[in-house]
Specification:
Shape: globular
Number of domains: 1
Structural class: mainly alpha
Order of helices and strands: HHHEHHEH
Number of strands: 2
Oligomer: single chain
Strand order of the largest sheet: 1-2
């Protein structure tokens, strides 16, 4: 499966929605994701890889949009926007809980969580290890 929810959140943020407004959309996005998983399983899917969302607080687009704003806080280690990454961490946590429930319902289906967030954060935490 492709990443689900990123465009929903990105569009809302770029058009000026506040994070505290978007937080209420996360369960809806997770619900849609679970609905798609159910449908794929009903169609015969036996192994599904479901990715979490990327750390959007590290995205050059958001770093540019929020540059100079006193509305955000930056992580001293990575330079990423803390509030945006906390939002994504919450999404990913709810997604993982929902996937755990799906595994209980479908014990014969392999439902794999792809942790895009922590995989990508390695580049921001230790950039010297990944290039010159």
């Amino acid at each position: 499966m492709g990443e689900i929810g990123g465009n929903d959140y990105n569009h809302a943020l770029v058009t000026g929605k506040a994070l505290n407004e978007l937080i209420w959309h996360i369960p809806l996005v997770i619900g849609n994701t679970i609905s798609v998983i159910n449908e794929l399983i009903e169609l015969g899917g036996k192994t599904l890889v479901v990715p979490g969302n990327l750390p959007i607080g590290c995205s050059p687009a958001y770093l540019t949009i929020y540059y100079g704003s006193n509305k955000v806080n930056y992580d001293n280690t990575t330079g990423c926007i803390i509030e945006l990454n906390k939002f994504v961490e919450y999404h990913n946590m709810l997604l993982q809980k929902a996937l755990d429930q799906m595994r209980d319902v479908y014990p014969n289906v392999n439902i794999i969580y792809a942790d895009y967030y922590n995989a990508a954060m390695q580049f921001y935490r230790s950039p010297e290890e990944y290039g010159s």
